[in-house]
Here is the input.
Amino acid sequence: MKKIVLIFLIPLLLYGTSYDSTLLQIGAKIFPKVALMEKGTKERIQSTVNFVIVTSLSNKAAAQRLSEIMEHQYNGTLADHPLALFIVSPKEALEIKNAHSFVLLMDPDDSILPMVLEHAAKTKTLTFSFDPLLLQKGAAVSLYIGRSVKPYINLATLKQVPFTFEYGFLKLSQPY
Amino acid sequence: MTQTLIGKFAWVFWLLYIAVIAPIYIFIQVNVSSVLNESEKAKIELIIQTLKPIISTYLTFDQTDMLNDTMRTFFQNPNIKDVSLVGVNHNIIFERHYPHSDIHKTITLTTPVIDSITHQKQATLLISYSNNFVHDLQYKLFTQLIVLSLFALLIFTITYIYFRKQFFVLRLLANWMGDYSIHKASEPFKSDNSNTEILTITSSANKMVETIEDYRVQMEEINNELEMRVENEIIQRREKEQLLIHQSRLAAMGEMIESIAHQWRQPLNIIGLAVADMNMKRALGALGEQELEKNTAIIDNNLQFMSNTIDDFRNFFNMDKESLNFAPIQPIHEIFSLLDEQLRYANITYLIHEKCDQEIFGVVNEFKQVILNIINNAQDAIKSRKNQIGGKIEITLRCDSAYLYIDISDTGGGVPIKIVERIFEPYFTTKLHNKGTGIGLYMSKVIIEQHFEGSLSVNNTDDGALFTLTMPLKH
Here is the structure.
């Protein structure tokens, strides 16, 4: 029954850019794993895995919640590396150069979004989103959560940086 | 076990074949199965290690369809029979059995699927695979070995027949060489076999036979030449022997003249006295008929005696060579009859002991010559003894079942030891002033040994020499 409700509920939630607990839990579970499926990101990890949640003010609570879920999910350790979680504004994100992933909880129409994406591309930082529109704008990975979780990847972004994912992930993902 | 070269080759071939193939087969059976099992295990483990991250990813994203597709890829390996993926709660995520008709034995590999990020166990992967392929491989290997053996047998049989045919000419050659005889001419061995080795052997055999033939001809020539030389030598030796016999006879004749002189002395005296008596009585006119007849009778008797002596002498020296059976006592008496007067003159007595009257076979005159030689030697030896007047000669005839023995002993002092080995040598004599020729005893020995197939030996007794003639009895 819960799954049926989710099936109907989650697409609405995704398109409505509102982040409920289930959505955040799935994201919190999958995004770090996907990050480590990317060869460059994995290689760039020296000691700490820096996971940065870039959020607009309206989504700050969701960002906080996502951070907490991630902390709980991984207990501060990701693949034998300490996991550092940061919640920053888009403006602050532009200053960060040692991030391994950006989780974008932003409005697709936010004027600073292109700069954030450009900065992410420059620093070879993976960008995750829950919003297909953000994927359209240039985010690298988004999630479709239906009967099963289906990752969507922006091939243009992947080729531009470039990002190299494991075969299993690429086979699983849906290109955009 | 065959003794032919080809047969031995066959044995060696199969022994070598078995010696090579059997260890290889056993080695493969013993080692390859384990190696293949290990290899298969390593291969499957490699597949598992390859697919595990993908399975992990699909489990992470809960991608059942893709997970099933991935799990089915295990069956691309035909040896994998069962694949199952069991969740942490023992729930079956995936399970598939690949139906096979003849599975001997399966081996199950169990491996956990661990999330590489969280290191949490996501599921347990169970792969069961069979080792049928090893049995299949062993069966294939065995089948191929059988095929290989049959092929080897075929090749061997063809080779065997071929070489047997090729070597058959050697058997013909052996038969040809076995039939070869030096007593008959032989054609060269001919063969249409063109093998270099066979040609070399046949050529060598022909050359060998040619060489033997050459040697045979040479040997025949040498034999003929030798036969001629031997024949000539025999003729020469016979001539020499005849000459020696003749010389010996002449020597005996010379010695006999003295005997005749002794023999004739008394009758001549008697005849002379009878003639003188008649002359004197005729002169006195007293020669009557009775006196004339008496003296004539005396003269006739003595002339007859002298004539007999001459006859004996002539008989002794006639050239009669006829071999016949005769009793030796008669010729011995005749010899003593001739020598009687001479021996008496020399005060030599003689005794003849006839213990055997068997006959021997040979020429009587040659036997007489031998007896005469020995008695003359005995007479000379007795005469030559300074401290002895007269002497004695004894002749004993004895025999056994096969031989007749004539022992002639004298009291002449015997043969000196230092010359006893040489007295039968030709031209060896101890007589001085040309009284001896040195051929008497030599010829006696030759006559006894070669003409009578007997032997003549000498030993010394206390008083003199003892000559023993041993002759086979007549056949």
